[in-house]
Amino acid sequence: DNEYAEIRVDTRIKTDVKIRNNRPDKFILDKKKNKITLIEVGITSQDSLQIVETEKLRKYDLLANELGLIYKCSVEIIPYVMTWDGIETKYHKSYLKRLEIPMNVEAYIQSIVLKKTRASMGVIMRAEMHEEPTPPLKEGKREEDGATTLEEPTNNINKESDLKEETKMVKEVEENI
């Protein structure tokens, strides 16, 4: 907060009227232009991209109206939404222009999203590698009626573990990711 601007990140905005959606991702009050910009950020799947962008755009309508009355200024809501692999809607470029984000900064943001996605996928893959597969049930014969029953397999806790081999395999996979 200074003489030119007030910036709040993920902070509740107090208003005279109780408003449920009162915590935008970014709140920027440009004191020179007498303008408030509410920025809502979202990373989603391609199937949900348009829906998420529209929701982000409409979520703070009431707050924007109230802020306009309180601060006696114009208020705009700008969604900044893309998929986890960097895909954007046809409106994204117009939002970038309104935010005055240069293309090199946009490219940097996309690279961060891709790196975070890759890191998340690596965590998921490593977790899946450590899951033990469910062994099939063993068939057992009951002498008295000739019926077949299925028995749960047992793990021999005295059997030596292949932990060193598994650790080596995980490291190789991580290096190749």
Describe the structure.
The chain is of the alpha+beta class and 177 residues long. The protein has two domains: 1-101, Alpha-Beta Plaits (2-Layer Sandwich), CATH 3.30.70; 103-132 and 160-177, no CATH class. The chain has helices at 49-58, 61-71, 92-99, 103-130, 163-176; strands spanning 5-9, 26-30, 35-44, 74-83, 138-141, 148-151. The protein has a four-stranded mixed β-sheet with strand order 1-2-3-4, with helices on both faces. A hairpin with a 4-residue loop joins strand 2 and strand 3. The longest helix has 28 residues, at 103-130. The chain is elongated, with a radius of gyration of 27 Å. The model has no long low-confidence stretch (mean pLDDT 80). Residues 130-145, 159-177 have a biased composition (Basic and acidic residues). Residues 130-177 are annotated as: Disordered. This is Reverse transcriptase.
**Helix fraction bin:** 40-55%
Overall average pLDDT: 80
What's the shape?
elongated
The count of helical stretches stands at 5
SSE ordering: EEEHHEHHEEH
Radius of gyration: 27 Å
Return the CATH architecture of the largest domain.
2-Layer Sandwich
Task: Look up the CATH topology of the largest domain.
Answer: Alpha-Beta Plaits
Strand content: 15-25%
Quaternary state reads single chain
CATH class of the largest domain: Alpha Beta
pLDDT < 50 stretches: none
Task: Determine the N-to-C terminus distance.
Answer: 43 Å
Q: How many individual β-strands? A: 6
What's the arrangement of strands in the largest beta sheet? 1-2-3-4
Main sheet: strands, sense, barrel: 4 strands, mixed
Structural class label: alpha+beta
Tally of distinct domains: 2
